[in-house]
């Protein structure tokens, strides 16, 4: 095939693991299906996934990373601090966000140089709608959460069912939903609760979807078809469900281990040996994603809750730079768990895909980040839902009220991940209660486990040849190829 005839798609991820990981996986899927792919990102972010890109390129796929310089000096950050997850304080986070904002110009220049046929850009890059219009090419909006959460955002933004309630904890029902979903004001993001500077930042992001060619979802038809339908009929824009992308593209263990890997795990064998020594489905995996930082008081309650539950667990603890001194509690706890062999702590970053797929893992405590949900579901695991911020409270409702594969721990307040909350500490008794239900042998647990396994099977089938997500990806690529062709014809005729 001549180079110029090959469809060229440029991907621009947003630098936070929960957004970047699925977009990189999706870009790799496009390349594996014959598309010429360019990913635009900064150096330190590229280093977390470049291994996979090199491996795909060496296997003959047309994929590359185009690096741009993060303006570290201009925003006053040390080199290499380029990802939202490095925002350990509001000040640093502000500087990282400013740096990301400043990348608009160099990215737009690259668009002009590269002359792609289409751009797939993260929802957070709303400005790319105009950039694509200037180039006369389609912009695909990449939404990194569920249809359910996107519908909830749009409906709550439009109908404001939370206005005029007597208190922050009074329940309201999300209007227009096929299921009766109740929430409180405290559970929705603060920028939606009342107008603020953050509202002016987020609203255009959600509105930009309507001005895009369509939206790409890391979800699958069999999982939330009611909301896929609702989204299309109410927003009136095209969407494609091509998930779960992670299991589709990271098939072998090496790929799973490499994904999003920022540091070498000298101890990999240790956690694996520990898991290997456990009975099937006996271990609870506890993780709050890549951003959440918990107050020390909350870590203490989790530690006691897990210990008191009497179950085996692997717990991923992100080092909290602020209270290094208080970590001695966790170090003592880690030592005690080593002796009792009941628990294993992974500091900072866990090879999550490998742990979830291990036969000893029987359930997960999750903050309801969409990627973690899809990955658990793919492994056929039921979940304890402990949402923290952003879309996670909507995802909790999907898990608990619609899919019925989650036990709510009872989280009440949606708070930005880096505003460590000391008031809203979940008590150890609540944690034990949820763990008992999830990991116990009661009817509720058995039924949840069965439903999770069924969804896990559907997740595997949908990405196989002939499956729903598989066909959708092929159709989307074909559609983009036809657009390219008709554009070329237009140019010839005029
Ligand atoms: N992740 C991981 N190891 C960790 C923490 C996170 O591999 O220790 C991955 C996880 O598998 C998921 C992503 O990072 O793919 C986190 O995305 P999610 O949507 O679950 O939550 P977020 O981090 O955006 O809150």
Strand and helix map with partners:
Blueprint: E1 8-12, H1 17-32, E2 36-42, H2 43-46, H3 50-58, E3 63-68, H4 72-75, H5 90-101, H6 104-114, E4 118-122, H7 128-135, E5 139-143, H8 147-159, E6 171-173, E7 182-184, H9 190-193, H10 197-208, E8 214-217, H11 221-235, E9 239-241, H12 245-249, H13 253-258, H14 268-276, E10 283-287, H15 296-309, E11 312-317, H16 327-340, E12 343-347, H17 352-357, E13 361-366, H18 370-378, E14 383-385, H19 392-402, E15 406-408, H20 428-439, H21 443-462, H22 468-493
Parallel strand pairs: 1-2, 1-4, 2-3, 4-5, 5-8, 8-9, 10-11, 10-13, 11-12, 13-14, 14-15
Antiparallel strand pairs: 6-7
Helix pairs in contact: 8-11, 15-16, 15-20
This protein binds uridine-5'-diphosphate (UDP).
Main sheet attributes: strand count, strand direction, barrel closure:
7 strands, parallel
Which ions, cofactors or small ligands are bound in this entry? uridine-5'-diphosphate
Shape: globular
From the alpha carbons, calculate the radius of gyration and give it in angstroms.
Answer: 22 Å
Structural category: alpha/beta
The first-to-last residue Cα distance is 25 Å
Low-pLDDT regions: none
Enter the CATH topology name of the largest domain. Rossmann fold
Please count the helical segments. 22
The order of strands across the largest sheet is 3-2-1-4-5-8-9
The total tally of domains equals 2
- CATH class annotation of the largest domain: Alpha Beta
- If classified by CATH, what would the architecture of the largest domain be? 3-Layer(aba) Sandwich
Task: Look at the structure and name the CATH superfamily of the largest domain.
Answer: Glycogen Phosphorylase B
% residues in beta strands:
5-15%
Let me know the number of strands: 15
The amount of helix comes to: 40-55%
User: Mean pLDDT, nearest integer?
Assistant: 93
């Amino acid at each position: 095939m001549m180079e110029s005839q090959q469809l060229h798609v440029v991907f621009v991820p947003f630098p936070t693991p929960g957004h970047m990981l699925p977009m990189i996986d999706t870009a790799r899927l496009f390349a594996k299906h014959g598309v010429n792919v360019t990913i635009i990102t900064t150096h330190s972010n590229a280093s977390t996934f470049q291994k996979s890109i090199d491996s795909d390129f060496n296997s003959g796929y047309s994929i590359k990373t185009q690096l741009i310089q993060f303006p570290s000096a201009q925003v006053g950050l040390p080199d290499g601090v380029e990802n939202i997850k490095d925002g350990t304080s509001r000040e640093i986070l502000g500087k990282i966000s400013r740096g990301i904002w400043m990348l608009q110009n160099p990215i737009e220049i690259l668009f002009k140089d590269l002359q792609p046929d289409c751009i797939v850009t993260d929802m957070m890059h709303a400005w790319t709608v105009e950039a694509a219009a200037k180039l006369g090419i389609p912009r695909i909006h990449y939404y990194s959460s569920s249809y359910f959460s996107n519908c909830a955002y749009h409906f709550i933004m439009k109908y404001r069912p939370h206005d005029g309630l007597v208190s922050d904890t009074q329940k309201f029902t999300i209007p227009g939903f096929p299921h009766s979903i109740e929430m409180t004001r405290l559970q929705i993001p603060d920028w939606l609760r009342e107008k603020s500077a953050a509202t002016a930042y987020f609203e255009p992001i959600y509105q930009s979807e309507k001005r895009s060619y369509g939206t790409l979802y890391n979800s699958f038809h069999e999982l939330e078809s009611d909301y896929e339908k609702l989204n299309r009929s109410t927003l009136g824009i095209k969407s494609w469900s091509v998930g779960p992308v992670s299991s589709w593209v990271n098939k072998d263990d090496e790929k799973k281990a490499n994904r999003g890997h920022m540091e070498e795990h000298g101890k990999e064998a240790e956690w694996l040996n520990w898991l290997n020594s456990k009975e099937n489905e006996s271990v609870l995996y506890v993780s709050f994603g890549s951003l959440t930082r918990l107050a020390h008081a909350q870590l203490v309650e989790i530690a006691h809750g897990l210990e008191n539950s009497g179950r085996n667990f692997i717990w991923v603890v992100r080092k909290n730079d602020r209270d290094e001194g208080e970590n001695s509690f966790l170090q003592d706890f880690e030592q005690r768990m080593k002796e009792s062999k009941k628990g294993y702590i992974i500091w900072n970053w866990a090879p999550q895909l490998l742990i979830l797929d291990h036969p000893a893992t029987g359930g997960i405590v999750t903050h309801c980040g969409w990627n973690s949900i899809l990955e658990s579901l793919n492994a056929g695991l039921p979940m304890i839902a402990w949402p923290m911020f952003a879309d996670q409270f909507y995802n909790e409702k999907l898990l608990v009220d619609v899919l019925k594969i989650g036990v709510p721990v009872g989280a009440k307040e949606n708070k930005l991940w880096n505003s460590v909350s000391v008031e809203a500490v979940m008590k150890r008794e609540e944690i034990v209660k949820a763990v008992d239900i999830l990991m116990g042998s009661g009817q509720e647990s058995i039924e949840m486990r069965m439903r999770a396994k069924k969804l896990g099977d559907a997740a595997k089938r949908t990405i196989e040849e002939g499956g729903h997500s598989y066909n959708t990806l092929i159709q989307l690529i074909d559609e983009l190829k036809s657009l390219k062709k008709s554009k070329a014809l237009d140019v010839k005729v005029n």
